[in-house]
Design a protein that fits this description.
The structure holds two protein chains of two kinds. Chain A contains twelve helices and two strands; from the N terminus they run αααααββααααααα. By secondary structure, chain A is mainly alpha-helical. Chain A is globular. Chain B is built from nine helices and ten strands. A six-stranded mixed sheet of chain B has the order 6-7-8-3-9-10, with helices on both faces. The chains are: A mainly alpha, B alpha/beta.
Chain lengths: 291, 242
């Protein structure tokens, strides 16, 4: 049983890091625009299917498809941004309806173009096992994207804390008017947050495509998961998002190990509700805000 | 005579509610202008209108002989018109140092960001002690120093300061005004909005009094009769009309 627990913790850690990529993008966009992009998971899905097409049609390695998928996803994300930008009244609320609708359109677009069949990479390299000490089992894809994800979260943190536009993005999240008084055009940071979110979403999409299986309904599930993680972490905390994502990953893996895989989605929700009851500001969020 | 900042008959307000009624004001380079007046007189709205945070429906805003009416807030900042907003508006979940570095965001100031940071820390040593703290954890006085320091990082040519004494203890107010006097002695152009008449008069060269969205008096600070000013301020009948 001990070995199973250890394996569950390990798998949860590996899954949690790519959850973090998805959740981080959602949190960034929420920070700058104060909107929840309910089509965010569909961006991840799109990236995965672009990689599938690249591999099956042009026999391109999924890793080589990353730059191409990034461009496609970024273009779609900017289109979503431009649509949101057209909302003049009650943007917070109306954008929920808009992005939910875009999510449905994207899912059905994927369904139409790529059908409902389950897909995965056909490059065997990704699926080969990596075993540590006859105890911890994983695939090459999982290890590779674990490393890439951690590096990307680190890079995003560096960008936000050390660069002019990263700081400006945080400033807009913190106080939009004050940021304008510092010479920041908030629209620039809004577009930027969408592009950064697209880059993170793309990598997450390729991680799922090479490590697991993809199907059109995945996008919606990912949006919900990213939303749970973001709220769990406390809106706007990057280390919080990483830890919250790993927590969800581990709890899901433990549920599968000890109970049943059909309960996997349920435990995440239960955890989410418990945290909301006990710590409404999120695990790593700030206390009640002034005003 | 060319003023650093010239405001000509502007009307501005929030949506359907107009607040400023044909306000005109002129600021000489290197002087300190105080705008006084009771709550709701439109002083802060005037500064916000200059910064493009409030829509100007009529009139002109001229900076160094260039028309700037309708210019976006960020472009006003790029022109060197900088505002320290009422209520400080620091970035609460960012560190003191990151707040100051945000002040250096305009491209023209970036090359001197580190030098300016050092100057601000010399001016306000308490900010230097707290540089790694979150701005949300600062006291009111420290937050005001941070807001002023952040404004100075923007290298203001025209420095608009909105109610720096708001909600602060008298001893802290003295400290803030000592800082403003120092800035004035360095020859900066300052527009100060205040409710604390005596404090404002102690640094101002020129005084405007606003009431109900209009300028009701403008005078050289040295000539101001405080009793008369207060009569106007509180709209007592003893004061002469205009």
């Amino acid at each position: 049983m001990f070995e199973l627990t250890l394996q569950a913790l390990y798998s949860g850690l590996l899954t949690g890091t790519y959850y973090a990529l998805v959740a981080l993008g959602l949190a960034l966009v929420f920070g700058t625009m104060k909107i929840i992009n309910l089509a965010h998971g569909e961006l991840v899905l799109l990236a995965a299917y672009v990689a599938y097409t690249a591999e099956s049609q042009w026999s391109l390695n999924p890793l080589a498809a990353i730059p191409f998928a990034m461009v496609v996803v970024s273009v779609v994300a900017i289109a979503v941004y431009l649509l949101i930008d057209r909302i003049k009244k009650d943007r917070e609320l109306n954008s929920l309806i808009l992005t939910f609708g875009i999510g449905i359109i994207l899912t059905n677009f994927v369904l139409l173009v790529w059908s409902a069949d389950i897909r995965s990479t056909t490059t065997p390299w990704f699926q080969q096992a990596v075993v540590f000490g006859d105890l911890l089992f994983s695939s090459r894809s999982e290890i590779l994207f674990f490393l890439i994800s951690v590096a990307l979260v680190g890079a995003t943190w560096w960008w936000l804390s050390q660069t002019w536009y990263g700081r400006a993005t945080r400033a807009v999240s913190s106080d939009r008017k004050a940021a304008m008084l510092m010479g920041v055009n908030p629209r620039q940071t809004e577009i930027l947050s969408f592009v950064v979110a697209s880059i993170l979403a793309t990598v997450a999409g390729i991680a799922i495509f090479t490590g697991q299986v993809i199907e059109p309904s995945l996008g919606h599930a990912l949006t919900v998961k990213a939303f749970i993680i973001t709220v769990l972490a406390g809106m706007g905390s990057i280390p919080g998002v990483l830890l919250g994502a790993i927590l969800i990953g581990v709890v899901e893996a433990l549920t599968v190990t000890y109970f049943s895989s059909s309960l996997q989605e349920l435990t995440g929700m239960v955890l989410f509700l418990v945290v909301l009851l006990l710590r409404p500001q999120g695990l790593f969020g700030f206390g009640v805000r002034r005003g | 005579m060319s003023a650093a900042l010239d405001i000509k008959d502007i009307r501005a307000g929030y949506g359907a509610v107009n607040v400023l009624w044909d306000v005109s004001l002129s600021v000489e380079a290197g002087t300190t202008t105080a705008i006084l007046g009771p709550n709701g007189a439109g002083k802060s709205t005037l500064l916000r209108a200059i910064m493009g945070l409030v829509t100007v429906s009529q009139g002109d805003i001229v900076v160094d002989s260039c028309a700037r009416t309708g210019t976006s807030t960020w472009n006003m900042v790029n022109e060197g018109v900088v505002m320290v907003p009422e209520g400080r508006m620091v970035f609460r979940d960012m560190t003191v140092e990151d707040n100051l570095l945000m002040g250096a965001f305009p491209k023209r100031t970036r090359p001197r960001a580190q030098a300016n940071l050092k100057t601000v820390y010399q001016r306000f040593p308490r900010l230097s002690e707290r540089r790694r703290q979150l701005a949300g954890s600062l006291s009111g006085g420290e937050a005001q120093m941070l807001a002023l320091g952040r404004g100075l990082m923007e290298e203001p040519r025209i420095f608009l300061v909105d109610e720096p004494s708001l909600g602060l203890a008298p001893v802290i107010v003295d400290e803030i005004f000592a800082g403003l006097r120092q800035l004035k002695e360095e020859g900066r152009t300052i527009v100060l909005v205040e409710q604390n008449t005596y404090k404002a008069l102690s640094v101002a060269d020129y005084v405007y009094l606003m009431q109900a969205g209009k300028i009701v008096m403008s005078q050289v600070a040295a000539d101001v009769d405080v009793d008369h000013l207060h009569d106007l301020y509180f709209a007592r009948k003893t004061g002469s009309e205009h």
